[in-house]
Amino acid sequence: MNIRLKLYASLSVHLPADAVKNEAEVQVADGTTVQEALDSRGLPRELCHLVLVNGVFTPPDERRSRVLQNGDHLAVWPPVAGG
Asked: What predicted TM-score, i.e. pTM, was given to this entire model?
C-alpha cells in the first residue's frame, strides 16, 4: 500500500531520492504500524518528536500499535528550540 510521508527540518534527509520538497509517496506493507514505517526509513526515534497521521497527533506509546492505511499521510517533526 502507499502512504504519503512528510518529514520536516533535519529529518528530510531520510526521504527517498524522488521526494518533492519535504514529502514523498512510499510503499509499505499492509499492516505496517507508524513505528515500523519510521524505522524503515532509518529515522532515529529520539528525533521523531511530533508525529501526525492524517493531521492527528500520535503519541509515542501508540506508534507501535497504530496501523497505517492505504493513502494515509504520515508527518514527522523533530524537536525544535528557539526563542
From this structure: 0.93
